[in-house]
Specification:
This protein is mostly helical and about 160 residues long. The chain is built from 7 helices and 6 strands, in the order H-E-H-E-H-H-E-H-H-E-H-E-E. The strands form 3 sheets. A two-stranded parallel sheet has the order 1-4. Helix 2 (about 20-35) packs across helix 5. The chain starts with a helix and ends in a 23-residue tail after the last strand.
Length: about 160
């Protein structure tokens, strides 16, 4: 805004990330309230009854619910930016899962990976055994637990 007000050509294209894990967790919680859960194609095909099958939500329906959640909740951040008077070009607002941007987002990650700037590695995640997925740090309730840590030493021969 400062530079734009001084006559410089400036463009701020506003956009939001899909916050995949956090959004998924919220949709999963809503499904649990309905007595349902996300199901794999195999689980749905092998369901022993129609009643069991109805409790499983296929991928396509799950993605529809994610988009509905985004439509309901996704405007909060941009609404706050607008309230603060952000000098963005709101006609160009984008979302990372918009079909036109998904290709670009994937391409950017591939290029960053090829340059060694992002990597796939072994690291700690917050795993939800109930949801069978990783969850955001924001969704974790931390607690101190007494426990033991075991070490194993292996003899390695050259």
């Amino acid at each position: 805004r400062f530079h734009r007000m001084r006559g410089r050509p400036v463009l701020w294209t506003p956009g939001t990330d899909h916050a995949g894990i956090a959004t998924q967790l919220q949709v999963e919680k809503a499904l649990m309230v309905e007595g349902k859960r996300r199901g794999t194609e195999e689980e749905i095909a092998n369901a022993s009854s129609e009643e069991e099958r109805e409790k499983l939500v296929p991928r396509e329906e799950f993605l529809e619910r994610v988009w509905e959640y985004k439509e309901e909740q996704g405007g909060a951040i941009t609404s706050q930016l607008r309230s603060l008077g952000a000098s963005a070009d709101w006609t160009r607002e984008r979302f990372t899962m918009d079909p036109a941007l998904s290709v670009g987002v994937s391409e950017a990650f591939v290029r960053l990976h090829e340059k060694g700037l992002v990597y796939r590695g072994t690291y700690m995640v917050n795993w939800s055994p109930g949801l069978m997925t990783a969850v955001s740090d924001l969704e974790v309730e931390y607690s101190e637990e007494e426990g033991k840590l075991y070490y194993f030493k292996y003899v390695v021969e050259d």
